[in-house]
Amino acid sequence: MKKWKQILRILFILDLEDGRLNLFESFPFIKRFFYNRKYFAWIRTFGDLVFVILILLGLLGPQDPQRNVMLFLAWGIWWTSVVLSWFFVGRMWCAFCPFPGLGRLLQNLGLSRFKNPPKWLTCKGLHLATALFFLIIWAETVTDMKHSPFLTALLLLSIVLGATLMGVLYRGYTWCRYLCPFGKITGSAATMALTEFRSDYEKCKDCKTFSCRRGRDKIRPCPVFLGAYHAKNNLVCLVCGHCLILCERDSPALYLRHPLREQIINKGRYITCGYVIPLLMGSQLARFIYETPYFTWFENLLGFGKAVTFTFLFAVGTLFFIELIKGGSILFTYYEDELFGRFSPMVPVVMPLAFTGELVYRLRYFLEELGNFLPTLGRQFHISFLISYQFEVPPFWIKTISYFLIFLGLTGGFYVAWYFYKKEFEGLVPFKNYLFINLLLVFCGGLYLFFQP
């Protein structure tokens, strides 16, 4: 009972000093799971096989969305489960991701140059990944990709080819570390996860081998060139546990924490989040509008087609959130420190809304198409009795769930703003500024609520 009380305290009471629980110590079966690499291999292999089947169904299967289940499996189950995983296990999904599977196989066969990633990639990878994310969201929307098996398979295949090329040219998971657009989004969202994978400084401080980053005994090092002792946040670490078998000091462990802990500690200092959050929120606003009658109004007003109108809304939405985040950070009055450097405290304020907004968008597709899954499966594989198992999730409940999640995101944002005002920046932020910050957040939430289909 004491253990569960501690868990509840960690989840609901923010403690920046000692607000973590070592899950390896409290639940040894979790540690055994991470140490037994066969489990990871089995899950990855299963994921790779399912992924291959999805691509084949998209390329060779029926192109009628009512006769191909790959659309629901890809956009409904896969995407929604990925977004949900952000809030619980951070980037652990990336540890099982099928995109680098072929590249990993080629590396295991010795068919790779195993070179270090070039400097231009380490410097410009964030910009390239952000551009790829814009391109993917744009293509998904304007081509109605969620209703096209072929285009969906083509998207998946193109990402696999990109990851494979990087795997052949460079060592490790170069694609995952620097170029994967989903990785950047997942990494940013993982800073709000309930868990974190960290090393023990006391165990690491006298280490001379740095095996977790360099490898040892023909065991390859951390696939994203990080090493447990360098995992200071959730942005890059894949939570793959590879460093566990390399560390001689039993240092890395999985910890339970308050979901806003990392956001408040770092106060928007991550440049990745500074790029990703306004782009993500701008895309969400444009996608929400796209699915409402208001989009037709914008289309008629601008006099352009759907593609140009959506691009315009995407760009304007992104610029709007960039300026809103800048303005909100200025209202905090304290956004630069001699030791801490520059930071953007408005980023962690809007971040809960940004990622619950993405969950709203993905979950809506899942709920709207859930009742069609079995009939679609029946039509595709000629299983006649499944066709009668059609049902519909009432639109009222879909909207209610969407509103609840948006309010949940707003609640998280209000809490972060209050914590900064009352504790982190105590006495530095004028009360009227604090009110304006909350009004900006309310305005963002109002836009999300107003443009719900």
Can you characterise this structure?
It contains 21 helices and five strands. The protein has 453 residues and is mainly α. It has a three-stranded antiparallel sheet with strand order 1-3-2. A two-stranded antiparallel sheet has the order 4-5. Strand 4 (336-337) and strand 5 (341-342) form a beta hairpin. Helix 15 crosses helix 18 (346-370). It is globular and about 60 Å long. The protein starts with a helix and ends with a helix. It is found in: Cell membrane.
Write the layout of secondary structure elements.
Blueprint: H1 2-12, E1 20-22, H2 23-26, H3 28-35, H4 37-60, H5 70-89, H6 92-96, H7 101-108, H8 119-142, H9 149-169, H10 174-179, H11 181-190, E2 195-198, H12 201-204, H13 211-214, E3 253-257, H14 261-266, H15 271-290, H16 294-302, H17 306-331, E4 336-337, E5 341-342, H18 346-370, H19 373-381, H20 395-424, H21 431-450
Antiparallel strand pairs: 1-3, 2-3, 4-5
Helix pairs in contact: 4-5, 4-9, 5-11, 5-18, 7-9, 8-15, 15-17, 15-18, 18-20, 18-21, 20-21
